[in-house]
Specification:
Blueprint lengths: L31 E6 L14 H10 L4 E3 L5 E3 L2 E6 L5 E6 L13 H12 L17 H6 L9 E5 L2 E5 L7 H4 L10 H6 L17 E7 L3 E6 L13 E6 L3 H9 L5 E2 L11 H6 L4 E13 L9 H9 L3 H9 L4 E2 L23 H15 L8 E7 L2 H18 L2 E7 L1 H9 L5 E7 L6 H4 L17 H12 L3 H18 L2 E13 L3 E2 L15 E2 L2
Parallel strand pairs: 1-10, 14-15, 14-16
Antiparallel strand pairs: 2-3, 4-5, 5-7, 6-7, 8-9, 9-10, 11-17, 12-16, 12-17, 13-17, 18-19
GO molecular function: peptide transmembrane transporter activity
Organism: Suicoccus acidiformans
InterPro entries: Peptide/Ni-bd, SBP_5, SBP_5_dom
């Protein structure tokens, strides 16, 4: 367990929102970290979360069985230890007996059973339930009319939690660090099903921090938990998160000293400041497991045509986008699985970047199949969530498509939660999305499209051959064969093109010199428990 010594602030930390509502929360001796969020968290319910903004809050106020360190090591968290059967199917977790909820209740094995079954309950409509399908009986309960008692999880006693998998799963303990697998307090949630609809006295958590305040469109405040089992090793007393959509405003506020760190998932550095931060040596860039892509609604009559989708994919100048717009070390993506993922280090290059001649050939074939005689008859609505960076990228792609293909492209933007709802309801044609890996394996990407009903598959696309390959990869013990199945699946995905990869992310961030321990794990999470402020 990493230990850091906290700096005692000798003056009251001033942020652009601490002067009012937060002024009474902190004292002059508190160690306070000031961060940002690009939007309101769409949810603070672990079962319903699907995005990094929600995760930035939930991951720090709850704790699951395991945690993943920046070097990729899986370490005990809510579980102090575990054993695995010889066949790799049965995991037995010994829970910490000193772990308690923020209301003082002990965290027991039944809280994990209840939390997991709540995710799988079809009435919950969790979009991340599919990540639990590695558990015996989980998929059947979630989508197949099965019974909750047939899901192979059980509390052997208050502090022993047993899980039986369908097949050995090499990344299972890493998967458990994901917020979908968090426990919830059964007593509280059953008494108040709306416990997480908004911040209230029933919002009970078990992590290093408590959610002390959440004011929509203003701020989130986390305070150090008085009940957390490892509180002696939590250096920060308070974390303030200002909610602002504008990257330019956030960057100006960082320069003014109002933030200690700026970078995903805690806000973003504005594109027009990247070069200046590079020049003064303060910009830091790290590759991580994430892909920026456009999702396509294949239930739309025009977007159902594969040649139209391929035309759009080929008519994007990705290199220009990363060189002239993002400028933060991003890598043009001509595949879907990031090259940081083991076994996928070599870019498969399923199509050529900015191949306009090929794009026009695809377009001509697609228009003929659609019964259209001219590119000007094809109208494309490109949807993004409100963001300066997404808008600039969308405008560049709009220019590519309009100039090189002659199609009509309009751009619309909506607030984050509304945007997510539109994607889920397939109320779009082409939409921007970013996907961060939930564990360091290609399955975290390719599993999204296992079926049309899989959570976060907003395309409406599925292919029986693809589904079969994902199933084979899930149960395959031979790593070479498993990798072969996954690569075959990616080839099918890229041939069908229900999504258009744009680039593989890098984490671009700036931070004040006194901030210590703001380290990303392989999927872009930062555990604030490990952060401190030095002299």
């Amino acid at each position: 367990m990493r230990k850091y010594i906290a700096r005692l602030l000798l003056t009251v930390v001033v942020s652009i929102f601490a002067l009012s509502s937060l002024g009474s929360v902190v004292s002059a001796q508190d160690a306070v970290l000031n961060l940002a969020l690009n939007s309101n968290p769409p949810t603070i319910d672990p079962a319903l979360a699907t995005d990094t903004t929600s995760g930035a809050v939930i991951d720090n106020v709850f704790e699951g069985l395991t945690d993943v360190m920046p070097d990729g090591e899986v370490v005990p968290a809510g579980a102090e230890s575990w054993e695995v059967s010889e066949d790799g199917l049965v995991y037995t977790f010994k829970l910490r007996e000193d772990a308690v909820w923020s209301n003082g209740d002990p965290v027991v094995a039944d809280d994990y059973v209840y939390g997991w079954l709540r995710v799988l309950n079809p009435d919950t409509a969790s979009q991340r339930a599919n990540f639990m399908y590695v558990v015996e009986g989980a998929e059947e309960y979630n989508v197949g009319g099965g019974k909750p008692e047939d899901v192979a999880i059980q509390a052997l006693d208050d502090y022993t939690f047993e899980v039986t998998l369908k097949d050995p799963t090499v990344y299972f303990t890493e998967l458990l660090a994901m917020y979908t697998f968090l426990p919830v307090n059964r007593t509280v949630v059953e008494a108040n099903p709306q416990w997480a609809a908004e911040l209230n006295e029933d919002y009970v958590s078990n992590g290093a921090f408590d959610l002390a305040e959440w004011t929509l469109n203003s701020h989130v405040v986390l305070t150090k938990s008085d009940t957390y089992w490892d509180r002696e090793n939590v250096a920060l007393d308070q974390v303030n998160m200002q909610i602002t959509e504008s990257a330019s405003t956030l960057t100006s506020d960082y320069i003014a000293g109002n933030f200690d760190f700026l970078g995903a998932p805690y806000g973003e550095v504005s594109l027009d400041s990247i070069e200046a931060f590079k020049a003064d040596g303060t910009l830091q860039s790290e590759p991580y497991s994430a892909v920026y892509y456009y999702t396509i609604n294949t239930t739309d009559p025009d977007m159902a045509n594969v040649n139209i989708r391929k035309a759009l994919a080929s008519a994007i100048d990705r290199q220009s986008i990363v060189d002239n717009i993002t400028k933060g070390g991003q890598i043009p993506a001509t595949a879907f699985v990031p090259t940081i993922i083991p076994g996928f280090e070599e870019d498969m290059n399923y199509f050529e970047d900015a191949d306009y001649d090929q794009a026009r050939e695809y377009l001509a074939a697609g228009l003929e199949e659609l019964g259209k005689s001219d590119p000007s008859e094809l109208d494309i609505a490109l949807s993004i969530n409100t963001s300066e960076a997404h808008a600039v990228i969308a405008q560049a792609i709009q220019e590519n498509w309009s100039r090189e293909l002659g199609v009509n492209v309009t751009i619309d933007n909506t607030e984050w939660q509304v945007y997510l709802d539109r994607l889920t309801q397939k109320d779009y044609q082409v939409g921007r999305i970013g996907w961060t890996g939930k564990f360091n394996d290609a399955m975290t990407y390719l599993g999204i499209f296992e079926t049309a009903e899989t959570g976060n598959n907003d395309t409406g696309w599925e292919d029986p051959a693809y589904t079969e390959l994902i199933s084979l990869a899930t149960s395959e013990l031979d790593e070479a064969k498993r990798l072969e199945y996954l690569k075959e699946a990616e080839a099918i995905l890229m041939d069908a093109m229900p999504i258009i990869p744009i680039y593989f992310y890098s984490n671009d961030y700036v931070q004040k010199p006194e901030v210590q321990g703001m380290e990303y794990d392989s999927v872009g999470r930062i555990n604030l428990k490990n952060v401190s402020l030095s002299e």
